[in-house]
Amino acid sequence: MTLVDTAPVAAPARRRGTPPRRRAAGPAGWLFAGGYTVLLLAFGVFPTCYAFYLAFTNDRGQFTGINQFTKVARDYRFGPAFSHVLVYLVLWLVALVVLTVLAAVVLRSRVRPGLSALLRFLYYIPGALAGVASVLVWLFMLDPDVSPVSRLLDALGLHSFAAVLAPGNLPVIFVLIAFWTGAGGWMVVMYGALNNIPDEVLEAARMDGAGHWRTAWHIQIPMIRQWIAYMTILAFAGGTQLFVEPQLLQTASLGRVSPTWSPNQLAYVYAFQQGDFNGAAAISVFLLALGLLCAGLLVARTNMFTIEEK
Amino acid sequence: MTATAPAPRPAARRATPSAAVSALVIGVLLAALLVFFVLPVIWLLLAPTKTAGQIVHDNPLSFGSFRHIGTAWRHLYDFQDHALLTWLRNSAVYSLGSLVLTLATSLPAGYALALTRFRGRTTLLVATLVTMIMPSATLVLPIFLELNRFHLIGTVWSVILPFSFYPFGVYLVYIYFATSLPRDLLAAARIDGCTQWQLFTRIALPLARPVVGLVAFFSFVGNWNNFFLPYLVLPNSDQFPIQVGLNQLLTSTPSFNPVAGAGLNITIPELSLAIIVAILPVLVLFLFSQRTLVSGMLAGATKE
């Protein structure tokens, strides 16, 4: 209760131009932000620094330069893990961007509002099963013995669970899971972004003779461009972190799926099975760098995030 | 309006066949998406009403009987001395505990960032943005290494404290206070002699109810469904949250693990029921939260 702010009383007339809140300088801000700042330091800044520290040292704390990085990069599992995730990311981002934007445009302009709301709701619901639940559900969907679409699996030549889990299919499986839990939410968000486009703009396009598809391509999609970029970068950054899905699939497949399919799994194996925390940290640093790069890109290159009020 | 009509209106002549095609494309697209999103959910809801044999042999979308739900529940309940309830309770403790801490730290922090000026404010804001955009999984292994260094592995705090750090929540509060709090009201209160603390508790907080709901939704859903961190930092089954518990159940299912799961009653109906129970709190929130999602994800964008 001691956070007295006397500035407005002390000098009300002298700085009439600036709004009063600007004079609330001093310790008050830090007292308010203190709790959060401690958490930020403890679970954001410190772990990042500590991971960097471990990645540049060995288990006796001696500085080893980039040795840890070259060690993990030469690991025979390192290249495959990153290339697996790269294939997954390409498929996932293309599917996400094309289908989400298309569905949002259609739901916004081509479907009656009531039906559109119902469909958006139904598309969005699987998001509640994000994480372990979604993987388990898809294990069932992809097991020809129990799947409701076993005929479809049969038609694709997938007659057994083992055939479904063939290495070449894994990226597609992870895309299915990610799309099932994530795309509906993004469709709702994109729809919201499309809703922010003033009606006059669409009206003007219609007056000029543009059909629905041309309006979508030339007006609506360009106007939500930054949201598409936002979604793509977030989905990319999230996709590099793949862990739960391959880990559970590995468990469920009795080892048919590699335990080091994704980089995060490889880091996990380094830390938990090899007891090599420095190596695990080195892999984490690769992933951290990717995450930081994406975040920096969004903050610095777009005007999505307001740092100062306009 | 046929294609051979003399002096046709060009737009209309083209529109008829192409309109039919585009209506067809739209119909197929929306229907395919509907089946894709909804079919697994329906299958999941029906699975516990059947026996494992019925699931394999009957029509996949048939309804068994309510009696089988009871049987599945008993098997599930008996698994490792009602471990399921322990896991659910743990999840509640972790999610709600960190939610309280998140609100207690992010509301004042967002307020300070929006309405006060202090040295280092911009740095704090940028750090918040960057950590908020980075996927939370990026920090999980480093946090594990840190907790391990300080011998905090296996404690309740090793989950609750990292969960409480929620930069997105701070950002939402910051945007909300920066855009929605009437300046005149604050100025008037200040002239009446309100201290900074009183401004926060008497004016800002009572007006913050919408953003509290927003932060609570995202934080609770994210933490309830989180698997990676608790999987790394909690070694004992009686500390597992439900997500890690589901993984344990999976390894005990003869369907997927004939060796370890042999002799156990955890088959597909039990596993499906466990999934439903595990997601129920989040599902209930989702039924009412579509608008929340949009306003959260679009926060800050509408003010250009």
TrEMBL record, chain A:
<protein>
    <submittedName>
        <fullName>Sugar ABC transporter permease</fullName>
    </submittedName>
</protein>
<keyword id="KW-0812">Transmembrane</keyword>
<feature type="transmembrane region" description="Helical">
    <location>
        <begin position="227"/>
        <end position="244"/>
    </location>
</feature>
<feature type="region of interest" description="Disordered">
    <location>
        <begin position="1"/>
        <end position="23"/>
    </location>
</feature>
<dbReference type="Pfam" id="PF00528">
    <property type="entry name" value="BPD_transp_1"/>
</dbReference>
<dbReference type="InterPro" id="IPR000515">
    <property type="entry name" value="MetI-like"/>
</dbReference>
<dbReference type="InterPro" id="IPR051393">
    <property type="entry name" value="ABC_transporter_permease"/>
</dbReference>
<feature type="transmembrane region" description="Helical">
    <location>
        <begin position="161"/>
        <end position="180"/>
    </location>
</feature>
<feature type="transmembrane region" description="Helical">
    <location>
        <begin position="280"/>
        <end position="300"/>
    </location>
</feature>
<comment type="similarity">
    <text>Belongs to the binding-protein-dependent transport system permease family.</text>
</comment>
<keyword id="KW-0472">Membrane</keyword>
<feature type="domain" description="ABC transmembrane type-1">
    <location>
        <begin position="82"/>
        <end position="298"/>
    </location>
</feature>
<feature type="transmembrane region" description="Helical">
    <location>
        <begin position="85"/>
        <end position="109"/>
    </location>
</feature>
<keyword id="KW-1133">Transmembrane helix</keyword>
<feature type="transmembrane region" description="Helical">
    <location>
        <begin position="30"/>
        <end position="53"/>
    </location>
</feature>
<dbReference type="InterPro" id="IPR035906">
    <property type="entry name" value="MetI-like_sf"/>
</dbReference>
<keyword id="KW-1003">Cell membrane</keyword>
<feature type="transmembrane region" description="Helical">
    <location>
        <begin position="121"/>
        <end position="141"/>
    </location>
</feature>
<keyword id="KW-0813">Transport</keyword>
<feature type="compositionally biased region" description="Basic residues">
    <location>
        <begin position="13"/>
        <end position="23"/>
    </location>
</feature>
Automatic annotation (TrEMBL), chain B:
<dbReference type="InterPro" id="IPR000515">
    <property type="entry name" value="MetI-like"/>
</dbReference>
<comment type="similarity">
    <text>Belongs to the binding-protein-dependent transport system permease family.</text>
</comment>
<feature type="transmembrane region" description="Helical">
    <location>
        <begin position="271"/>
        <end position="288"/>
    </location>
</feature>
<feature type="transmembrane region" description="Helical">
    <location>
        <begin position="92"/>
        <end position="112"/>
    </location>
</feature>
<protein>
    <submittedName>
        <fullName>Carbohydrate ABC transporter permease</fullName>
    </submittedName>
</protein>
<keyword id="KW-0812">Transmembrane</keyword>
<keyword id="KW-1003">Cell membrane</keyword>
<feature type="transmembrane region" description="Helical">
    <location>
        <begin position="157"/>
        <end position="178"/>
    </location>
</feature>
<feature type="transmembrane region" description="Helical">
    <location>
        <begin position="21"/>
        <end position="46"/>
    </location>
</feature>
<keyword id="KW-0813">Transport</keyword>
<dbReference type="InterPro" id="IPR035906">
    <property type="entry name" value="MetI-like_sf"/>
</dbReference>
<keyword id="KW-1133">Transmembrane helix</keyword>
<feature type="transmembrane region" description="Helical">
    <location>
        <begin position="199"/>
        <end position="221"/>
    </location>
</feature>
<feature type="transmembrane region" description="Helical">
    <location>
        <begin position="124"/>
        <end position="145"/>
    </location>
</feature>
<feature type="domain" description="ABC transmembrane type-1">
    <location>
        <begin position="88"/>
        <end position="289"/>
    </location>
</feature>
<keyword id="KW-0472">Membrane</keyword>
<dbReference type="Pfam" id="PF00528">
    <property type="entry name" value="BPD_transp_1"/>
</dbReference>
